[in-house]
Amino acid sequence: MTPTLVHSHHLHASATPRVDLWARARDWAEIQERMLVPLYEAVYERLEVGTGTRLLGLGCGSGLALLMAASRGAAVTGVDPSAPERLSLARERLLPDAAGGVRARTDTRLVEGGPSDVAAAAGSPDALPYNLVTAFHPIGCVAGDSEGLSTLLGAAAPLAARGTPVVLVGWGPPERCATSSVLRVATKLADPLRSTGSWRPALRDDLEEVAHRAGLKPDGSGRVACPFGYADVESAARGLLSTGLFDAAVGATDQAQVDKELAEALHPHRRRDGTVWMPNVFRYLIARTK
């Protein structure tokens, strides 16, 4: 929640609001993306990511998860077909220019596109196949947010060796995710004719269903606490808006209405020092290519 957290194209309304995409990308990279760091660390530790890892990150965004893997010695490739502004920030992080005094790694690649564009960007057959694939954008908080993911995973599978772990991520049960109540505001405003909009609780087998549709074999899972913590209500609002999850609500109402109701929804999570704290639990599934 990109971390969000789910790509904004999952929830676009017919009247998509005009936004400053560069400002949004910065808010994502500087405020929201770090919320899933405990999840990335847990997955990398469990799978022993290191110098022998060749990682393909699907929907890599501004590249924090890739940077963490690279810091462990992994060779990383990130692809993202729908967020060029975030991908530009990923290039700043992972491919610094020579003027900065840091040499870019020759085995780091960032591709604006999908898995089908990766082979051409790899440059040499030695870069393939990958032995770890990650899809870190969480699913399971709104209806239809897994649409297209199975297809994306299916396209990535031929780039990976047989038995390669593929990591999928989903929101935990609503009762263990304080942010659920805030996200309900977005779906309620986007679909006022239904009392809860397109909100639906995360289901225990969401990730397994996606894996089966993609032709992957589930092979273990885990849960990780990922609290969303912000300096103040304004930072919390900027971070959550950067996910794109509120775009449909803005299109159905207006920015002022969304800002008002978002602030109200965040108020119960505001602590005495003004910070905002929302405990959440995320679930990850490790599936393997056949």
Automatic annotation (TrEMBL):
Source domain of life is Bacteria
**InterPro entries listed in its UniProt record:** SAM-dependent_MTases_sf
The name of this protein is: SAM-dependent methyltransferase
What organism is recorded for this protein?
A: Streptomyces formicae
